[in-house]
Design a protein that fits this description.
255 residues; alpha/beta; Nucleotidyltransferase, domain 5; 2 domains; 6-stranded mixed β-sheet; 5-stranded mixed β-sheet; 33% helix; binds beta-D-glucopyranose
């Protein structure tokens, strides 16, 4: 099945048509800068533009940077607070005229990696961390997702929230060298390991292409792999999520 996958991030909104049987992008990937302030109205217009530029009228899957409970946004760390409490799946369905299915961005990126990527066939606990404007997490046990883990907001032993200390936005904003940022990120991963004991850690987001620059600084027992889909995991996973919901017979998008 072909589905338009859209990944809404703090800096870019990206979309492509995905063949869900293979996870392959079958159209160009289009990226539009995330409007600021990232209000529902502004993001709604951008998502509609992506849909139109793909000449798409079928179902769409959306990875969204917030905890999404039954189609409703519950948090808003890197988007406008007015998203909190909004039925985002209904909202994007109305904006685009397409049936929209919405889940947390890191969760859907994880789905792509578990189905087709670095976490495929791993029996134990897999932790996926997406590194971007924020730090997103997805946790799987034997392929089953525990949704909406918001572990980028973990408080570290220095009293700082992980996402304010070791995200990609912080690396760029504070002009940190790879070594300095890698040490920070290792502090985060080792804290996570003490709490979750994953068998494998998969890193997604733009930084996953640069893993060689900071991998020597990572001291976790669990092996680290870059996301196979690199920073396209969110697009692919969003489409997979929509497909899953369609197969469950949810023609009302929000569930
Ligand atoms: C949000 C998460 C999201 C992550 C990555 C965090 O600030 O709270 O929901 O997955 O950023 O976008």
């Amino acid at each position: 099945m072909q589905i338009l996958g859209i990944d809404i991030g703090g800096t870019g909104i990206k979309g492509a048509i995905v063949e869900t049987a293979t996870g392959v992008l079958v159209s160009d990937r289009i990226r539009i800068k995330t409007p600021l302030p990232a209000t529902p109205e502004a993001i709604g217009i951008t998502v509609k533009e992506l849909v139109e530029r793909h000449r798409w009228s079928g179902p769409i899957g959306i990875g969204f940077p917030a905890a999404i409970q039954h189609g409703i946004a519950r948090t808003a760390a890197n988007i406008d607070n007015s998203f909190i409490g909004l039925a985002v799946a209904d909202f994007f369905s109305v904006q685009t005229g397409c049936a929209a299915y919405v889940a947390n961005d890191a969760d859907v990126a994880g789905m792509a990696e578990i189905r087709f990527g670095a976490g495929k066939g791993v029996a134990g606990v897999v932790l996926i961390v997406t590194i971007g404007t924020g730090l997103g997490t997805a946790l799987f046990s034997s392929g089953q997702l525990l949704p909406n883990t918001e572990l980028g907001h973990l408080l570290l032993d220095n009293g700082l929230e992980a996402e304010q200390y070791a995200s990609e936005a912080v690396r760029i904003g504070e002009e940190l060298q790879w070594k300095a940022w890698g040490k920070r990120f290792n502090r985060y991963l080792t804290a996570m390991e003490k709490l979750l004991w994953p068998d494998l850690i998969v890193l997604g987001g733009g930084v996953s292409k640069k893993l060689h620059k900071f991998a020597p600084l990572i001291t976790t027992q669990a092996p680290i792999l870059p996301a196979l889909f690199l920073n396209q995991a969110g697009i692919v996973g969003a489409a997979l999520f929509a497909e899953e919901k369609l197969q469950q017979g949810c023609n009302s998008p929000e569930r």
